[in-house]
Automatic annotation (TrEMBL):
GO molecular function: ATP binding; ATP hydrolysis activity; microtubule severing ATPase activity
Claim: Signal is one of the keywords in the record: no
EC number(s) on file: 5.6.1.1
Annotated keywords: ATP-binding, Isomerase, Membrane, Microtubule, Nucleotide-binding
Catalytic activity: n ATP + n H2O + a microtubule = n ADP + n phosphate + (n+1) alpha/beta tubulin heterodimers
Protein name: microtubule-severing ATPase
Region listing for Disordered, in residue ranges: 1-58
Family according to the record: Belongs to the AAA ATPase family.
Complete-protein stretch covered: 136 to 490 of 490
Length: 355
């Protein structure tokens, strides 16, 4: 997904980052003193988007540069994704509402047995709205959204993945409520293999330590959401911690109808209901992002017909889209996932999924 969410201020629970990385919770909340050793850049960044309490450094436990990077690169401050922007996926939405959104709004009700899960997994074919859902969850619960892609953990900070994970959780705690979204979580948290390299082994165990830290402190509102289309490859220890596993399937006929209508909104098109229904039937197996690509391809057809007239034509004279445009587009845009692949996912869902 490319659209982001608005990052909103955490309120009373926010805590500054302390230097005692391994026992962050034993440190009392520090008040802003104005004498912090944090560089002005870090402080102004923290003040901009978080609380009046700057993130303070009390002795080298974290890397100020890394904090700055997390605040600017990983914290997603784009426009928010709304629940309504996501077509279908009603079951997943309901589960996320109960698990993440309501607990942040009614902390008093969600204690003891109702204590919300801190880790969840969204699994399913690519392009089905997992990222969108995670973003919507963050914006609906006014949480800071940390968008971590596996490649950013392994490539951008080569050799520093472990430190990055530790700092990431510290920043997430200081800016809670927070949602840490880890896309392609399988690629960094895959089951241990014999030839696994040392750096990735350390990154993984650091993740487990940090995750257990936020889980054991019931005061922390930090939710980790992993996304994958290869749940079979996830490490057992990680899977155990992502207690709720929500299957995000390919859109069914209803969802495809909604998606198509949604994508075509605002475009002149002359498709009688009958044609829409044929399209819905013919796009069985297409993901949300395949449908997006299909509509984009179809929308180009009237433009291509113009030839050199494109430079002079009036915008309101472009002909509306027709069924034939979509038929042509379907020869170019094919479903990106093979059927046997998603059958595997359904099988995994029956065995390990929560819904
Ligand atoms: P994933 O994280 O599952 O790979 P994304 O959430 O990034 O997929 O979705 C990719 C794009 O596909 C979105 O930006 C959106 O345009 C479209 N899309 C996919 N699923 C949906 C959906 N259920 N509702 C609306 N748009 C969707």
């Amino acid at each position: 997904g490319s659209s982001g969410i608005k990052s909103t201020s955490p309120k009373a629970q926010a805590r500054p980052i302390s230097s005692t990385a391994s026992h962050p919770r034993k440190v009392p909340v520090q008040k802003s003193s104005g004498h912090s050793k944090v560089s002005p850049a870090v402080r102004s960044q923290a003040n901009n988007v978080t609380t009046s309490r700057p993130i303070q450094e009390s002795g080298g436990g974290y890397d100020a540069k890394l904090v700055e990077m997390i605040n600017s690169v990983i914290v997603d401050q784009g426009p928010s994704v709304k629940w309504e922007d996501i077509a279908g996926l009603e079951m997943a939405k309901q589960a996320l509402l109960e698990m993440v959104i309501l607990p942040t709004k009614r902390r008093d009700l969600f204690t003891g047995l109702r204590k919300p899960a801190k880790g969840l997994l969204l699994f399913g074919p690519p392009g089905t709205g997992k990222t969108l859902l995670a973003k919507a969850v963050a914006s609906e619960s006014d949480a800071t959204f940390f968008n971590v892609s596996a490649s950013s953990l392994t490539s951008k900070w080569v050799g520093e993945g472990e430190k990055l994970v530790r700092t990431l959780f510290q920043v997430a705690i200081s800016r809670q409520p927070s949602v840490i979204f880890i896309d392609e979580i399988d690629s960094i948290m895959s089951s241990r293999t014999a030839n696994e390299n040392e750096a990735s082994r350390r990154l993984k165990s650091e993740f487990l330590v940090q995750f257990d830290g936020v889980t054991s402190n019931s005061g922390d509102l930090v939710t980790v959401i992993g996304a994958t289309n290869k749940p079979q490859e996830l490490d057992d220890a990680v899977l155990r911690r992502l207690v709720k596993r929500i299957y995000i399937p390919l859109p069914d006929a209803n969802a495809r109808r909604l998606l198509l209508k949604h994508k075509l909104k605002g475009h002149a098109f002359s498709l009688p209901d009958r044609d829409v229904e044929s399209l819905v039937a013919e796009t069985n197996g297409y993901s949300g992002s395949d449908l997006q690509a299909l509509c984009e391809e179809a929308a180009m057809m009237p433009i291509r017909e113009l030839g050199s007239n494109i430079l002079t034509v009036q915008a309101n004279q472009i002909r509306p889209l027709r069924y034939g445009d979509f038929q042509k587009a379907m020869t170019v845009i094919r479903p990106s996932l093979q059927k046997n692949k998603w059958e595997d996912l359904e099988k995994w869902n029956r065995e390990f999924g929560s819904n």
